[in-house]
Amino acid sequence: MRKSWKTDSLDISGDWKRAFPSAASSQSPGLSVSPLKSPSSPPRPRSSDLALRAAMARLRTLPLALLFLLLLGVPALFSVALGFSADSPTDRRLLVLVDDLAIRSSHSIYFRSLESRGYELHFRLADDPKLALQRYGQYLYDGLLLFSPSTKKFGGSVDLAAVLDFVDSGHDLILAADASASDLIRDIATECGDPAALVIDHIGHAISQSDVDHTLIAGDEFIKSDVILGPEKIKAPVLFRGVGHSLNPTNSMVLKVLCASPSAYSANPKTKLSNPPSLTGSAISLVSVVQARNNARIVISGSLDLFSDKFFKSDVQKSKSSTKHEKSGNEQFATEISKWAVNVRHHKVGETVEPAMYRIKDDLEYAVEIYEWSGTSWKSYIADDVQVQFYMMSPYVLKTMSNDQKGLYSTSFKVPDAYGVFQFKVEYQRLGYTTLSLSKQIPVRPFRHNEYERFIPAAYPYYGASFSTMIGFFIFTIVYLYNK
């Protein structure tokens, strides 16, 4: 603001004019005020009084405008605050890479089964230039579904090394291939063996009018394990059309979940065989699983159609069999094998969803399933000395877990009063058994400003000091003003 004073007059500059336009007359840029008259004449209002009155009139309307803005703004801010929650789960997110987004509808039953179990699916094209598995050193997804068999190159920062690093970090992978599998997909599948040509079975094929080359297999050679395929027996055969793969015999962590019948072989149905096929019989694996040393779990399927709605709903009758099933076993098989992909879980007491982070002094539950290989199948491991650590630089909590005699170990405890990045750690070493080492990272945050107690007992002396100071000042004021 700029004021220039004259004798017995007031000059309002441009800045003040813009602020108080009602104080300015239609005269020249300066407003002249005549000299003061004698006291006998009634006083005329000065220009400064006019300016102040205009300013006060504007200030009277200001609270109403602010109130209107607050009424509009507060609900908007409140809705934004409700839209963000630090406790929303992020470690049950699955990235689904596809060649064509039409797979989302053609395989919708399988995807809905995953969503019904609490998973959040993110569908992306495999060649998306913005594709990424991690950001700022943190993985964005808990699992990866590769339903893009013909992809020759992934988009963005994803490549073969990125996928293998994703698995090496303890995340899960489900890979589905078919006859059009690219070299990239075959390189990833090499972790479980060498992909071969189409599987053909002239005896164990499914009866179908469109299947003239007997590549539609009705597989019922399942692994005998309730741990992987669930306690309920799969009664109907599983429809399979795709490539088989062989397992590396030196890799003890690979298991055949579904293998071909003794009459099957691997070959190109469009060419004539000049030499005996290299893969025959039960040596051909149709679906295999890998349990890595870091407990990451990989599922390799040679058939993308195995997960399709068409195969889920199809009836099936195996060749040379009089039994016809109204529905194939594909849905039950795919659901159970995807359940096997997650074996460690934690959540707050009274809830079932795993949070993205915990708050100090939260009550949580931790559970893990442990099984042992008996030589022919997986059986529940029973022990009373399995412990879990809640670890940050050193163990803050060390608890012995109880078991339900079925392989499920669980415990509950209160999050310590310390915030930072913690880990659930299970280190189990016993003579004659493979060392069990589980680790899962989870952040712990402090209380928010609105989560503390309204009055803290430890602060009562400070409350008393504050109120006594205010009361004393009030009494002193009264005494000082009215004491003569």
TrEMBL record:
- Domain OST48 middle, first and last residues per copy: 346-484
> Which segments cross the bilayer?
62-84, 460-482
Record's GO cellular component terms: oligosaccharyltransferase complex
Membrane topology note: Single-pass type I membrane protein
One Pfam annotation reads OST48_N
Question: Residues annotated as region Disordered?
Answer: 20-47
Keyword Cytoplasm among UniProt keywords: no
Assembly behavior: Component of the oligosaccharyltransferase (OST) complex.
Q: Cellular location of this protein?
A: Endoplasmic reticulum membrane; Membrane
In which pathway does this enzyme or protein participate? Protein modification; protein glycosylation
Per the entry, what this protein does is: Subunit of the oligosaccharyl transferase (OST) complex that catalyzes the initial transfer of a defined glycan (Glc(3)Man(9)GlcNAc(2) in eukaryotes) from the lipid carrier dolichol-pyrophosphate to an asparagine residue within an Asn-X-Ser/Thr consensus motif in nascent polypeptide chains, the first step in protein N-glycosylation. N-glycosylation occurs cotranslationally and the complex associates with the Sec61 complex at the channel-forming translocon complex that mediates protein translocation across the endoplasmic reticulum (ER).
Q: Which domain of life is it from?
A: Eukaryota
* Domain OST48 N-terminal, residue spans: 93-341
Q: Where is the composition biased (Low complexity)?
A: 28-39
Put simply, this protein is called Dolichyl-diphosphooligosaccharide--protein glycosyltransferase 48 kDa subunit
Identify the PANTHER family for this entry: DOLICHYL-DIPHOSPHOOLIGOSACCHARIDE--PROTEIN GLYCOSYLTRANSFERASE 48 KDA SUBUNIT
Per the annotation, which location comes first and is thus the protein's main one? endoplasmic reticulum
Q: Which GO terms describe its biological process?
A: protein N-linked glycosylation via asparagine
Q: Which family does it belong to?
A: Belongs to the DDOST 48 kDa subunit family.
Listed InterPro entries: DDOST_48_kDa_subunit, OST48_MD, OST48_N
